[in-house]
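Q: My labmate handed me this sequence with no annotations at all. I'd like to see what the chain might look like in three dimensions before we decide whether it's worth expressing. Could you predict it?
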Amino acid sequence: MEHYGFWSLLPPLLAIIFAIKTRQVFVSLLFGIWLGWIILSGGNLISGTTATIQALVNVFAEPSNTRTIMFSCLVGALIAFIQRSGGVAGFVNLINRLLTYLENKKIGKSRKIVQLLAWATGTAIFVESSINTLTVGTVFRPVFDRLKIPREKLAYIGDSISAPTCILIPLNAWGAYIMGLIAAQGFSNPLTILVYTFPVNFYPMFAMAMVLFVILSGKDFGPMKKAEERAIKEGKVIRDGAVPLISADVVSLEKKENVTARAINMIIPIAVMVGMMPLMLLYTGWGEVENISQYPWYEQIFFAIGKGSGSTAVLYSVLTSIIVSSILYISQKIFSFSETIDLIFKGISGLIPLALLMMLAFAIGTVCKELGTGYYTAELSKQWLSPNFVPIIVFLVACFIAFSTGTSWGTFAIMIPIGIPMAQALDANLYLTVAAALGGGVFGDHCSPISDTTIISSMASASDHIDHVKTQLPYAITAAVITGLLYLILGFIFH
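A: Here is what I predict for the chain of 495 residues:
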C-alpha cells in the first residue's frame, strides 16, 4: 500500500502528544486531522483545510460510525433515566447493605470489595467491549463516588477488562473477525490457530492481572497514586479543573422527589441492555448462517453471533433498554410521558462533547488510513527482522500502530497479513507471532486517547479523558514491558 513515509506518522503522534501535554483533546485531534489532510493535499493549505471539513462530514457517511455516535449519545438518556427514577440510589443502598454485611462478618474492606465487584462484572460481560466498559462505569460510579475512589480508577478498571476480556473469551465478533483474517492467509483451521494463541497472548492477561494486583495490594503508582491520595485526603473523586466527558447536569441528577429508591429500576435497564447484545449480534449475523447450514445448530449460533454487526447490536441494545425503561417508569407512575421525553433529550444533550470527540477520533483514523501510517510502520520493521526477534518486533509494531490509530481491529487487519507470512518465511513461531499481533492491538485499544473504548470508559465513569489516559498508561506500559520481555525470551526458545 502507498504511504507517505515519516510524514504519515506525524498527525496521530502530534495529536496524541499535544492532547496529553495541553489537555486540550478536541483542539489537538482537530490539529492532527488538519495536518494530515495538508500532507495529503501536497502542502496546499486551502485544499487541506477544505478536505478537513469534508472529512468531518464524511464521518457520518460510514453507517457504523454514525451508529456508534448515536449509541454514545443515547447512553446519556439511559443514565438520566436510572438516576432520576431512583434506580441508582436503590442500587447504592443495595451495595451498602452488602458492604455492611461483609464488614460485620469482618471479611474485608469496602473499597477493595467494590473494586473487585467492578472487575468481576466487567469480566463476565465479554460480548462487546463498549457494553462492557459502559456497564461497569454506569453501575459502579455512584458507589465509587460514595467511597471516595477516584473516577480515574473506575475508568481504568472498566477499560482494562473490556478489550482484554473480549479477546480472551472470543465468543463474539472479535473471535469471528480474527479467524476471518487468519483464514484469509490460506489456513483452513483458523479456530485451531486462534486457540493455540490463547496461552501466549500475554498482554490482555497481564492487563487484567495488573488490575487485580492494584486492587488487592493497594500499591498504586504514577499519576494514579496521586489521584488516590487526592480522593482519600481531600474527598475529591476528580481533580479541580477536570472536565468529565459527560455533563455534570446528567451525572448529578437526583432521584425525583417522593419516589422510592429501588435497585430494580437500575438493574432491569442494564440487564436488558446487556442481554440484548448477543441477541442482536445473532439477529444481524444470521444471514451468514446459510453458508454453514450443514453444521449443528449450536455452531450456527456461534457463527452468527461472530458475524453480527457490533455497532448495530450496541445501538439496538441501548434503544431497547430506553424503551423498556420508559415503560417501566411510566407504569410505576414515576414519570409522565412528557417527563420521559424531556429526560431523554436532557441526557443526550449531556453527551454532546462525547459525540464531538468520537467524530474527531473517527476522522483522524481515516487520515491515518489515507496516509498509510500502519503500513509504513510495519514496512520499517521488516527491514531488520530475524526469526528470533519476530514475536517481539511484531508486538512492538502492533502496539505503536494501535496507539497511534486508536483501533485494535485496524491493527489486526494490518499486522496479521504481515506477521503470518513473516513468521512462515523466517521460520519463526506462528502462534507467538499471531498472539503478539493480537496483544499489541489490544494495548492500543486499551489506552490510546483516540480509541473509542478508551473514550467510552472516560464517559461511563464521568472522568476527565486525559486524566484517565495519563493514570492508566503506567499500568498498561508495565504490562506491555513484561509481555515484550516474554516474547523476546520465547522467540529464542521456540524458534
